[in-house]
């Protein structure tokens, strides 16, 4: 009985941490422009991460946006599907990505491939992408 209660409590904590609320979304045009002019990037094909260390007024560790090229995917249905995949993989794994991040960052995740990906492909590539990011940021 106690084990079930503890397991339920732990699953609630994990579920609550795997959210992507509005305050964590990158919406500011000014910040997005600054991100692309001053930011650095890492790639794990077919994903590219542009990031910039910047302070926020909100109490969040990261603000993230996703983008898919209209040049590679003509129909909005395809672009929206890929963006949903990117956001979902980010939401499910962000606790793992940011567990040792201390400074605030702005992120833009770009899908630069030409074929529609599956959830598993996006997940493995995003883990590799954020692994490269953490290795690059943790270097002195």
Architecture blueprint of SSEs:
Elements: H1 2-17, H2 29-38, E1 40-44, E2 47-53, E3 62-68, H3 76-97, E4 105-111, H4 119-138
Parallel strand pairs: 3-4
Antiparallel strand pairs: 1-2, 2-4
Helix pairs in contact: 3-4
Description:
- The chain is an alpha+beta fold and 140 residues long.
- The protein has helices at residues 2-17, 29-38, 76-97, 119-138; strands spanning 40-44, 47-53, 62-68, 105-111.
- The protein has one domain: Ribosomal Protein S5, domain 2 (2-Layer Sandwich), CATH 3.30.230.10.
- The chain starts with a helix and ends with a helix.
- Residues 5-16 have low confidence and may be disordered.
- It has a 4-stranded mixed beta sheet.
Structure characteristics:
4 helices; alpha+beta; single chain; Ribosomal Protein S5, domain 2; about 140 residues; four-stranded mixed beta sheet
Specify the overall morphology: globular
Strand content: 15-25%
- Broad CATH class: Alpha Beta
- Helix share of residues? 40-55%
On the 0-100 scale, what is the average pLDDT?
Answer: 87
Count of DSSP H/I helices: 4
Q: By helix and strand content, what is the structural category?
A: alpha+beta
Question: H/E element string?
Answer: HHEEEHEH
Query: Mind telling me the C-alpha Rg?
Result: 16 Å
Poorly predicted tracts of residues: 5-16
Short description:
This protein is α+β, with helices and mostly antiparallel strands. Helices cover 49% and strands 19% of the residues.
């Amino acid at each position: 009985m106690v084990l079930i209660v503890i397991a339920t409590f732990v699953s609630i904590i994990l579920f609550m941490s795997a959210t992507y609320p509005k305050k964590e979304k990158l919406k500011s045009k000014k910040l997005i422009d600054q991100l692309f002019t001053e930011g650095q990037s890492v790639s794990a094909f077919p994903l590219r991460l542009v990031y910039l260390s910047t302070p926020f007024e909100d109490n969040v560790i990261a603000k993230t946006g996703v983008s898919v090229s209209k040049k590679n995917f003509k129909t909005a249905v395809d672009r929206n599907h890929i963006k949903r995949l990117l956001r979902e993989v980010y939401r499910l794994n962000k606790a793992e990505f940011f567990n040792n991040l201390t400074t605030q960052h702005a992120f833009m995740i770009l899908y630069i491939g030409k074929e529609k990906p599956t959830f598993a492909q996006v997940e493995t590539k995003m883990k590799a992408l954020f692994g490269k990011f953490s290795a690059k940021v943790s270097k002195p």
